[in-house]
Design goal:
Elements (H helix, E strand, L loop, with lengths): L21 E3 L2 E3 L6 E5 L7 H14 L3 E5 L3 H13 L4 E4 L4 H10 L3 E3 L8 H13 L3 E7 L5 H7 L4 H17 L5 E6 L3 H14 L5 E2 L9 H15 L5 E3 L6 H14 L7 E5 L10 H11 L7 E6 L5 H5 L4 E5 L4 E6 L2 E7 L3 H23 L10
Parallel strand pairs: 3-4, 3-10, 4-5, 5-6, 6-7, 7-8, 9-10, 11-12, 12-13
Antiparallel strand pairs: 1-2, 13-14, 14-15
Helix pairs in contact: 1-2, 1-9, 2-3, 3-4, 5-6, 6-7, 7-8, 8-9
């Protein structure tokens, strides 16, 4: 039920932009690699214990890459411990001071988020690039509409797609002139229209991987909507190799929203995709309350699968045909359970939540076992 059916439903197919691939630690970005999901810590980096705890939470939520700000020497000193303990590759966020970039590369950063044109003389740029090369770091050129170069604002009059792309390409040229090509680029704005237009132009101008985001998208209610509109448009058009949802909220929520955006487009699958009705007077049980509880109780399931929770028989049986597990409300205090799209058994509303959780966990184990059998056997090296 959870497999990709774009070969028989061509209207679901997304043709991804062809980009060259780079590595962020052990995570491939670009090419045919899965679109990776990132977030950023907001603890003081100098507090290694607090930062590592937040990284652990992001890891558990499914983060592929985590960015950590390194604004001062105390931060890059702590970064060595943080990078050593982290199970996901870390991007060191560097602004202006070239020494922080060198220190972060030496301390174990998998990637440096830096704008080469902002860190001073040609010698300083060369030193940072050499440190990245020596320590296997990639780089992200991060252009933001709120911090464009003064000369570009004077040239164009305001932040616009052309100014953002020109800034990005100018920075990229510095790296290319030093024969450094392990970089990705972002051109973010808080305005989804400006963001999308800038990425569309950039996608045609260069073949490097693109890091997507609508920056400063806002709080937990409106921010995901703005992010989904902007990034959804780009991802649907095949643009984007890694994403970060920028929310004024717990960074873990950024990972959840990022996966939800990718899941809705069929580009990445993680965890249970719950299809649920908004409920009405026909509902045979409290749909909203039930779905809220199930979402919390099934958060630990990472296996890609689908679950339909529908309040009545108008749409319930039809939705259940296409989900791994389904429950449709009926009458007299009970509903119908569906397994693999087929009617299975009646279930009383009392106890339905525990029953559904058990069925989902059982189905997840079944799917995991099937995937393990299909996985290619490891190639064993001949004994010496």
């Amino acid at each position: 039920m959870s497999s990709d059916l774009s070969h028989v439903r061509p209207w679901r197919h997304i043709e991804r932009r062809k980009s060259r691939q780079i590595m962020v630690g052990n995570v491939p970005v670009g090419g045919d690699a899965p679109i990776s999901v990132q977030s950023m810590t907001n603890t003081p980096t100098s507090d290694a214990a607090a930062t590592l705890e937040q990284i652990r939470q992001l890891e558990e939520a499914g983060a592929d890459i985590v960015r950590v700000s390194c604004p001062d020497e105390a931060s890059t000193a702590a970064f060595r411990t943080i990078a050593r303990e982290s199970r996901v590759p870390l991007v060191a966020d560097i602004h202006f001071h070239y020494k922080r970039g060198i220190e972060a590369a030496e301390a174990g950063a998998a990637c440096l988020r830096i704008n080469p044109g902002n860190i001073g003389s040609a010698d300083r740029v060369r030193d940072v690039i050499q440190a990245a090369r020596d320590h296997g770091c990639s780089m992200r050129i991060g252009v933001n509409a709120g911090s464009l170069e003064k000369e570009l604002l004077e040239k164009y009059g305001e932040p616009c797609p052309e100014a953002m792309v020109e800034s990005a390409l100018n920075h990229a040229r510095i790296l290319q002139d030093h024969d450094f090509h392990e970089f990705k680029i972002s051109v973010k704005a808080s305005d989804p229209f400006l963001t999308v237009a800038a990425y569309q132009q950039l996608a045609e101008a260069i073949d490097c991987p693109l890091h997507l985001g609508v920056t400063e998208a806002g709080p937990l209610r409106s921010g995901p909507i703005k992010s989904a509109i902007g990034m959804g448009n780009m991802l649907w058009a095949g643009i984007g190799d890694t994403i970060r949802v920028s929310l004024a909220a717990d960074p873990v929520e950024e990972i959840k929203v990022g996966f939800d955006i990718l899941k809705s487009l069929g580009l990445r699958h993680r965890g249970v995709n719950i299809i649920a009705c908004p409920s009405c007077a026909r509902q045979g049980f409290n749909v909203i309350e039930t779905v809220g509880i199930l979402e919390e109780k099934l958060a630990h399931v990472t296996t890609p699968m689908s679950l339909s929770i529908i309040g009545c028989v108008v749409n319930g049986p039809g939705e259940a045909l296409y989900t791994d597990v389904g429950f449709t409300g009926g009458g007299a205090g009970s509903g119908m359970v569906y397994l693999n799209g087929k009617m299975a058994f009646k279930q009383a509303n009392d106890g339905m939540i525990d029953q559904i959780v058990e069925l989902v966990e059982r189905k997840a184990a079944e799917l995991d076992a099937a995937r393990a059998l299909q996985a290619p056997a490891p190639v064993l090296e001949p004994a010496e």
